[in-house]
Specification:
Blueprint lengths: L1 H27 L5 E3 L8 E3 L5 E3 L2 E4 L10 H5 L15 E4 L1 E4 L7 E6 L3 E4 L2 E3 L8 E8 L2 E4 L9 E6 L5 E3 L9 E6 L5 E3 L8 E6 L5 E3 L11 E4 L6 E3 L11 E4 L5 E3 L11 E4 L5 E3 L9 E6 L5 E3 L2 E2 L4 E6 L5 E3 L2 E2 L2 E2 L2 E4 L8 H7 L3 E2 L8 E4 L2 E3 L7 E6 L3 E4 L2 E3 L8 E8 L2 E4 L2 E3 L4 E6 L5 E3 L2 E3 L4 E6 L5 E3 L2 E3 L3 E6 L5 E3 L11 E4 L6 E3 L2 E3 L6 E4 L5 E3 L2 E3 L6 E4 L5 E3 L2 E3 L4 E6 L5 E3 L2 E3 L3 E6 L6 E3 L2 E3 L3 E5 L20 E2 L17 E2 L7 E2 L19 H13 L1 H16 L1
Length: 725
């Protein structure tokens, strides 16, 4: 007998050891652990994949007492119990369970509970049918968290809350349920966030439920609606959900008031994107509801609705309203066109940036360098009343890209885009055409990028910069405007690779102490007056531009000193390739100036300009100097071998073959100037080959002197400074 007792005890010990080892094996084998953090809990729990426990339906009654009462004490004694004590920092946890309800009841039902608990990573399917049966069913429950569960393929709902408050439903997959994905009835202050709610009868339903937050859920391809609020479901927030491709409506409200519907996507639904019936005082702001079969937004017997800044493209009706009154519709993008908008970050406009991002469906981002505010693919009709879009008093990072702006007013700086005291903006690939003011205007705005825009047929300037510094103007097209591009009181800007053609007055215009700018690699052709005009502006670099066929001068420098005009190509201009008026101490080097009336014309006391290494050919008059003490070769730069310019009408020779003509080139005009070192090459003797005189040596010397250019410029600056002192 004692032997049998020992055997029985040994068997029990071995069996218990097996159970413990087996449990430990399941938790640690192959490091296949599932880690997550319960909302509001600092410690991290370690859980397994759903299906570790296979159970029959579980019913918990938080108020139950007595023997065999299925209360939370009973739960804590089950093998599948995941830990916790019911406090806010240590909720009771049910985890990793798979339950097949066999069409008999809900998978997990909890009633009359106020402790903190979490149901995590469970799979619950095949519930009983009807709207009050489902994967998880909470009745008169608070403080629950339903996280990362799969509540799909139930004959009723995925998750049900009845008279249950302050719960969180997050990250669950809820698909293919016969009734609702999530069903809330008389349930308040719940958070439903980040769930997948596809292919149910309705994705999310709220009835008689208030102050809930429904956000960032996906509710697509449901038999009826994506999100549905009914029967006095008031003061709820419907935020950033995707409710698309549903057989009825994306987001629907019936007899529900004072709700906020913002930033949602409701596209390609078979009926409406957003539908309100007998619902008042709601706000519908900044949503995208495109390509729905009927209305993007439909209001029926619904009053005092704010419908603001929604993107509503490709619907049969953009906004449809019937038997409704006192609704406000503004800044909605219906088929691409919205009215003018003013964003003033100091609060003096229609919106601040943060308000625009919250309230306008076509404005996104947070205004940081890595996440700028973005306005994209928009069409704004300025209605001849203001700028199409105006940004004021902003240092936030933003982009306006791929938009079309037209019909601005002609007032002051108004235009397609107007920036006033703005930094850190990017205006990219916009079409600013047919405005009564400017295409784009910047006033006291610095460190912006203006790139790839089309600025055509504006009554004033294609691009206007006033008191604006350190901006980059790159690869824009400005033609058929009054002026193509104008800078006034604007310094240290870079203007490169733009096309400024066929403007009524000038192509590029710098005026009123616009200093230290770089104008390079632009094409400036066929403007009615000057190609490039520099007026009362100093220390600018004008280089490598193509300036041709303009109605007056190629480059006109007027009352402007210490500018650098380098390596430009100026041809076929009606008067002069380069014209200097009362302008001193400029350097003109390595330019090709040909087929103009005058190649280079200096007039009205312009003095001490340095001109060398230029090619002047086929002009009616290559040069005229009516100025004072201008230098037509580099002899003032005594550290280097002196060199002048190439003149195609030079009459002298180069007997010693040093690449320099033996006699000076005499320049017409009252100054009596001459080029003492004209570039010339008599060409090879007895070769029988037609070669342009001086061509080869000009190319060689140009290459050599280009290498020395920086040193020459620096030395010239020093000498000018010393002379002025």
């Amino acid at each position: 007998m004692k032997l049998n007792q020992k055997r029985i005890v040994s068997f029990i010990v071995l069996f218990a050891s097996f159970i413990i080892l087996n449990i430990n094996y399941h938790y640690e084998n192959d490091n296949q652990l599932y880690s997550y953090e319960i909302l509001g809990v600092d410690n991290e729990c370690v859980l397994l994949v759903s299906g570790f426990w296979i159970e029959t339906p579980i019913s918990i009654d938080g108020d139950a007492t007595g023997i065999n009462a299925h209360n939370w004490t009973w739960v804590s004694n089950q093998l599948w119990f995941g830990g916790g004590n019911g406090s806010i920092n240590s909720p009771y946890t049910i985890a990793n369970i798979t339950i097949n309800s066999n069409n008999s009841t809900s998978g997990i039902q909890i009633r009359d509970s106020n402790v903190y608990f979490a149901i995590v990573n469970c799979t619950l399917f095949n519930s009983d049918s009807g709207i009050y049966s489902g994967g998880i069913d909470l009745i008169n429950v608070i403080n629950g968290q339903l996280i990362n569960n799969n509540c799909s393929n139930n004959n009723g709902c995925g998750i049900i809350l009845s008279n249950s408050h302050n719960n969180t439903i997050s990250g669950n997959t809820i698909k293919n349920n016969d009734e609702f994905g999530i069903f809330l009835e008389v349930s308040n202050n719940n958070t439903v966030v980040g769930n997948i709610l596809n292919e149910n009868s309705n994705g999310v339903y709220l009835g008689l439920s208030v102050h809930n937050k429904i956000s960032k859920n996906t509710a697509n391809n449901n038999e009826l609606r994506g999100i549905y609020l009914s029967t006095s479901s008031n003061n709820n927030t419907i935020l950033y959900n995707d409710a698309s491709y549903n057989n009825d409506t994306g987001i629907s409200l019936a007899m529900s008031n004072n709700n906020r519907i913002r930033g949602n996507i409701a596209n390609n639904n078979n009926w409406h994107g957003i539908h309100l019936m007998s619902s008042n005082n709601n706000t519908i702001i900044g949503n995208t509801a495109n390509y729905n079969n009927y209305a993007g937004i439909n209001l029926f017997k619904s009053n005092i609705t704010e419908v603001i800044g929604n993107l509503l493209i490709g619907n049969f009706w953009c906004i449809h309203e019937s038997e409704s009154e006192s609704n406000n519709f503004i800044w909605n993008n219906c088929n691409g066109i919205v009215p003018p908008v003013l964003i003033d970050n100091d609060g003096g406009g229609d919106f601040t940036w943060s308000e625009a991002a919250k309230r306008l469906g076509w404005c996104t981002g947070s205004g940081t360098y890595s996440d700028p505010y973005i306005i994209q693919d928009l069409i704004i009709d300025g209605q001849n009343s203001s700028s199409c879009i105006e940004i004021r008093d902003s240092i936030a990072h933003f982009k306006i890209e791929g938009c079309r702006f037209f019909n601005s007013s002609s007032e002051l700086e108004n235009g397609g885009i107007e920036l006033h005291t703005v930094n850190n903006g990017q205006l990219l690939n916009n079409n600013c055409t047919n405005n009564n003011g400017h295409g784009i205007s910047l006033t006291t705005s610095d460190n912006n990028i203006i790139m790839g825009n089309t600025l055509v047929n504006n009554a004033e300037f294609g691009l206007l910069l006033l008191g604006s510094h350190n901006n980059t103007v790159l690869n824009n097209i400005a033609y058929d405007n009054y002026h193509g591009i104008l800078l006034g009181l604007s310094n240290d800007n870079t203007m490169a690779e733009n096309i400024a053609n066929h403007n009524i007055w000038r192509g590029i215009y710098l005026t009123s102490s616009s200093n230290d700018n770089t104008i390079q690699n632009n094409i400036v052709v066929d403007n009615n007056d000057d190609g490039i005009f520099i007026s009362s502006s100093h220390n600018n670099t004008i280089e490598r531009n193509q300036v041709e066929s303009n109605g007056w001068n190629g480059i006109n420098v007027w009352d402007s000193d210490n500018n650098y005009i380098l390596e430009n190509d100026m041809r076929f201009n009606d008067f002069a390739g380069i014209y200097l008026y009362n302008s001193d101490d400029n350097m003109i080097r390595n330019n090709s100036i040909y087929s103009n009336d005058y190649g280079l014309y200096i007039i009205h006391s312009a003095q001490n300009n340095l001109i060398f290494l230029n090619n002047l050919s086929m002009n009616n008059i290559n040069a005229k100097d009516d100025g004072i003490n201008n230098m037509w070769d580099s002899s003032i730069l005594s550290a280097f071998t002196p060199i002048g310019n190439y003149w195609d009408d030079y009459s002298g020779t180069d007997e010693n073959d040093d690449g320099i003509g033996d006699i000076p080139y005499y320049i017409t005009g009252t100054a009596g100037s001459q080029d003492n070192f004209p570039i010339w090459d008599d060409g090879p003797e007895q070769q029988g080959i037609d070669i342009i005189p001086g061509y080869n040596i000009f190319i060689l010397i140009s290459i050599i002197n280009s290498i020395l250019a920086l040193l020459i410029i620096q030395r010239y600056k020093i000498q000018i400074k010393l002379r002025n002192e």
